[in-house]
Amino acid sequence: MRLRPKCVTLTRRLFLTAGSLTPLAARNWDRANFPEWSEGHIDKLLTDSPWARPLTLPFRFSAPAKRPLAISEFYQIGEPLGLPKGWPTGGSSPNTGNRTPRIDDGNAPPVATEIYLTTRWASALPMRQALALLEFGKSGLNSPRAVERLQANPQEYVIEVAGFPVGMVPQGPRRFEAELMASAALLVKGRKPLRATSASVPEHGNHLTATLRFARLENLSEEDGLIEFTAHAGPMDISQKFKLREMAYKGRLEL
User: Fold this and answer.
1) How confident is the model at residue 19 (pLDDT cuts 50, 70, 90)?
2) Which of 6, 110, 172, 228 is least surrounded by CB atoms within 10 angstroms?
């Protein structure tokens, strides 16, 4: 008699169990009664849900040219030019506590790096509910601004892409904004690309959030399958797909 290894049996059991739980997990977004949402539920909605997807974005980044022989102001914290780890530095060991400042001659080579973004449909009702709870709290949901946000029926899609480190936007927020505006699109199979009608990026902050607006698509349904957001800015190519059948909320497709 041939026995199956315990690890194989256990793995198969876990796989089948996970598969059987998937529909229940999808329905949990409806089952949690607003505004009785936990902090964990709000965080999950805004960062990893059918309406908000995390994205690890690898790319090669080149620092803007500096004046000759400029000394980086960031060497004290081990982040030359305030850029990601991996950028070429001076030769001293970090264990000595005497890191040599990198001399920037304006010709630093590109560095392979990555950033972590979150793309979310800020116009979708569950997103507006979660953001209202964060901004106003449960006790403030009756304020005029909160009521306006929750009862509004958005006439356009609003997509937020959060998490751009300001050091990764050397062209400045206005140029970055223009690049996103020129490139951002929503893609649905069998339809023409839908271009952004506006883009905005704040002037300040260590991490920037880009807000893009689009006209709404007519007769969009779960049968359309996927909707993809794409944009390009500087060295960054952003692409995030969303499954429309998972974006139903309270019996309605919410985008």
Assistant:
1) very low
2) 6
